[in-house]
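tool=predict chain=A
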Amino acid sequence: MSLVKQKTWVRFLAPLFALGLVFQLAGCGDNEPEQRKAFSEFLQTQVIDGTKIRLPELSKDQEKAFGNYTKDYALLTSFTSQLDSAFSGAMQSSMTELRTLNSMKAMVENREKVEKAQAETKAVQAKLDGIVKQTADSYAAMKLPEDLKVVYDKAYAKVVTQQGDLSRQTLTLLDSTFSDILTISDFLKAQGNKIEYNGPVVQFTEQAGLDKFNEMNASLQKNQQALMDIARKIAQIM
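tool=predict ok
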């Protein structure tokens, strides 16, 4: 009997709970225009304006002022954080080690270091693809008011699309550069006593070998120049 009474009591209270929920939602919703305006102004002045990518940490007052829109800002900060994490660690260590290979002879003698760096580059490419897809899926699922969406789209393009594109270009060029280095390394090793190392310079005893080397080296130099161009673009926004 008590169980029946309890169910009846719950059924009696249910409409009151629902009514209370409506009041609560209405109360929260009353601040939405102000929250939207505050968040939109923040995105415009702190994220979109200027060439540098800036993602200030929100204060408690800002989190309160933006309401539920704080989670939309978190999508931008989370992407950048994951991007930084993907490029750190093993790959950063390998790139630092590669800087010591400042001659063709060093490249030939340390081929395994180049192979390791290339493998780590490919691993980061896979991570980046996952990060970009996850972020893009969350972005596509957003239901923003049209006036805010216009502003948020600009912030997303600057923070996510721009950084994602530059990261992809960097990794693609690195992969291609490592392939060139490995190809040249194998070629030089196969030359045996037909070449001589003189500091950073490789001297050939046969013109055909020199011509082939110059052809391969031209591809390497092209990739290195492209990497420098990307580095300049990154420096302009970071």
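The beta strands are 195-198, 201-204. DSSP finds nine helices and two strands in the chain.
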